[in-house]
Design goal:
453 residues; alpha/beta; TIM Barrel; 8-stranded parallel β-barrel; 3-stranded mixed β-sheet; 15 helices; globular; binds beta-D-fucopyranose
């Protein structure tokens, strides 16, 4: 590559994981059951019957994992805390052992000179709260405040970067509308109030974090894909409006003080399942949700070329290029770096967040270790190189990017796809828990050292 790409000083390079995907120890030391424990223990829900019972055994091996982060030279590490590890019943009595685990992890990171970025909710709701209605009911948002209190009181002196929720759209729609994720409902009428209570809990949590963690920065992480129409037909253009409305604007608009987008409310009402026209919104909710944030986190993976559905199953993602490993990652997601520049620019120029991070970006390729235990994952390196260059182009366009987190530090439990999809910079042998730095990890180490390439 001829041109040099150098990032602004203070740009932060990190990698991300989440509690259920790596910790294991699902019932250790007083941890309560989460909806992902329940879901993965239900036959037929997860590819190959995989579960997160052991996963990367990070609950035991966290010191080793910090050493690996140091080897890669990470400046920051984004992880999530498990709500049922801290409040086994979702509210009420705190499990001190759960808090201690995260407290030690944070100390270990700081000692290694790695900045902790803590996500409070990366999908592992306490099952006991689900039994009372989960995010569909307002009391779960109230319980989230209790959980936020407990964790921010305990870590707030040392953790200065907080993310309330990871991808509320996926929680609402994959968990409650399409049903591929826990708790597995297929009901838009549940998904819509779920989305509202997620956003509300975010709005309520932000001031609590600020109270217990002075001089910290607080944000939220959204998944934002790049959607384009398969043709110029009005049906395809409408499919893009609809997809963007449901997956992006439904969240960004209220977060930035614009309320729920009217066109999407109309889409939902047309589907006839809408519970009593948004009656779950109470006075003051929209104000709480639009609390000013210090940053916006963006997870980006792919582009979707949309063709309007023949039935009311919604639009289809069509393949615009030949399916080669370069064009399609093993998740079946299109590799389209330009979309990342597009997404970052669009979010900034539309909503003007004070600053932004890419909180996740990466690719699933299962390239195994060769006979010398080397993982030559060139396709992943190409994916990272082109996407990091795309972040740089957004910076040149004026977008205030503050950092980039690779997804993921290591191969892990990829939700409904189990262990079949490998996103790691580090190879994990799930039988032996051996970790091997892939070529991409070594490549990323150089990017961090040079602050670019
Ligand atoms: C995102 C999730 C993350 C991981 C990646 C591949 O939607 O936030 O946990 O599964 O996808």
């Amino acid at each position: 590559m001829a041109t040099k790409i150098i990032f602004p000083e203070n740009f932060i390079w990190g990698a991300a994981t989440s509690s259920y995907q790596i910790e294991g120890g699902w019932d250790k030391h007083g941890k309560g059951e989460s909806i992902w424990d329940r879901f993965s223990h239900t036959p037929g829900k997860i590819h190959n019957g995989d579960t997160g019972d052991v996963a990367n055994d990070h609950y035991r091996l966290w010191k080793k994992d910090i050493r690996i982060m140091k080897q890669i030279g990470l400046q920051a590490y984004r992880f999530s805390t498990s709500w049922p590890r801290i409040l086994p019943k979702g509210r009420g009595k705190v499990n001190q052992k759960g808090l201690d685990f995260y407290s030690k992890l944070v100390d270990g990171l700081l000692e290694a000179n790695i900045i902790p970025f803590v996500t409070l909710y990366h999908w592992d709701l306490p099952q006991m709260l689900q039994d009372e209605g989960g995010w569909e009911v307002r009391s779960t948002a109230e319980a989230f405040v209790e959980y936020t209190e407990a964790i921010s009181k305990s870590l707030g002196d040392r953790v200065k970067n907080w993310i309330t929720h990871n991808e509320p759209a996926v929680v609402a729609w994959a968990g409650n509308d399409s049903g591929e994720h826990a708790p597995g409902f297929k009901d838009l009428a549940k998904g819509v109030p779920v989305s509202h209570h997620l956003l509300l809990s975010h709005g309520w949590a932000v001031p609590i974090i600020r109270q217990h963690s002075p001089n910290s920065e607080v944000g939220i992480t959204l998944n934002v894909g790049w959607r384009v129409p398969a043709s110029n037909s009005s049906a395809d253009l409408n499919a893009v409006r609809e997809g963007d409305g449901k997956w992006t604007r439904w969240f960004t608009d209220p977060l930035y003080g614009r309320g729920y987008p009217a066109d999407v409310v109309a889409d939902f009402e047309r589907q006839d399942t809408m519970p009593n026209s948004m009656s779950f919104i109470q006075n003051g909710d929209m104000k709480a949700i639009s609390v000013p944030l210090d940053f916006l986190g963006v997870n980006y993976y792919n582009r979707e070329v949309l063709r309007s559905g023949a039935s009311d199953n919604g639009p289809q993602v069509v393949f615009s290029k030949p399916k080669t490993p370069e064009n399609w990652t093993e998740m079946g997601w299109e590799n389209y770096p330009e979309g990342l520049t597009g997404v970052l620019s669009r979010l900034y120029f539309d909503y003007k967040p004070l600053k932004m991070y890419v909180t996740e970006n990466g690719a699933s390729y299962s390239t195994p270790p060769d006979e010398n235990n080397r993982v030559k994952d060139d396709l992943r390196i190409d994916y990272y190189r082109t996407h990091i260059a795309a972040v740089h182009r957004a910076i040149q366009a004026g977008v205030p990017m503050a950092g980039y987190f690779a997804w993921s530090l290591m191969d892990n439990f990829e939700w409904a796809k189990g262990y079949a999809q490998r996103f790691g910079l580090v190879w994990v042998d799930f039988e032996t828990q051996k970790r091997i730095l892939k070529d991409s990890a070594k490549w990323y180490r150089n990017v961090i050292r040079k602050n670019g390439f």
